[in-house]
Amino acid sequence: MGNCLGTRKKSPAEIAPSELIKPAPVISPPAPVIKLYGHPDSFTTSHIRLALSYKPVTLQFVPSDAQANPTIMYKSDVVTGSVEEILRYLDEKFPDSPVVVTNNVWGWCGAKTPAVVWVVMLQHRSMNWHMERMVKWAEDMGARGGNASGDPSMGSPRMEVKKFAKSYSHLHQLLLEHAQMEEMVMFQILESADRVSYDANIQYDLGLCKSANEDHARDLPIMNGVKEEIKIIGVMNVGSPDYQDALTRLLSRLYKLKDNCKQHFEEEEHELLPLMEATELNKLQQERVLQQSLDAMRETHSHLFRFFMEGLCPQDGMHYFGLIKRYCDNARVSLMLHMMVD
After folding, report:
1. Distance CA 123, CA 121 (A)
2. Domain assignment of residue 74, given as a range
3. How far is Cα 335 from Cα 342, in angstroms, rounded to an integer?
4. What are 144-171's pLDDT values in tens digits?
5. Calpha distance 97→105 (Å, rounded)
6. Highest mean pLDDT: which range of 180-184, 230-234, 336-340
7. Partner residues linked to 199 by β-bridges
């Protein structure tokens, strides 16, 4: 299943040309059925529905007016309890796609790491995954040169380019909003600190934020160049030498953007984000910072939220949603949940 929600078919980004010729598919047994009883407007119910979207099951949701904890039924089991209890039960029964967020540290991160740092790092993971996906997809289109279709569900080569353009447009918006969020929120917090120290012998250097801003400015022309190259390919004669040359240029730009983003994210995670721990944000401050971050990434956390979450593995997706649920207002969380489970 990769990082994606549900049992989505492979896209051309995940299909090698050799996979296009396959034996007759093996008929798999039907997915097990889980019944979920809960109030349709309850965050707890929606949280469980989100977790079930990662599992290889068929969900039968039964809306209930009761305000009690949601209940799931699987075979002869009846489980009622908190979100954590039900998620642990689901991981026990279906362990392949774990949804319980563990206490394992991630590098230097730990239980006291500010929520905004986790948000930034999880966003890095999603953007890296989508970037890798776009590169693989472009490689596959280049290998075929417009002379053969990839995934049959993509339609004609021209239709495939349109779908490629739409997917890159989503990633382009995510990259822009992520950079804006860092510049408007996170960097402002660091720059307002009075020489914050995160280590006894290391003090904060304003040059780190300046360097990160310069990276954002450096990558913007490349991002826009990819978008323009896709537009050009979309109006060219499919399979012509010029078409193949344009695909080669597109792939070259994507390679450069992918490498730049990967290096930029790694530098932030090793040099800049650890400094946020020294700011010692309290709960109210963290809540305000998360609200400001979501405001700066409005498109990502509205109609692009499902796209963003597809770039995270189940545990990371549940972690990200848990952070938002903990710190952000109910109306915003409700909207994002509906994007995922409706």
Report:
1. 5
2. 12-17+29-93
3. 10
4. 877 766 677 777 888 899 999 999 999 9
5. 19
6. 230-234
7. 202
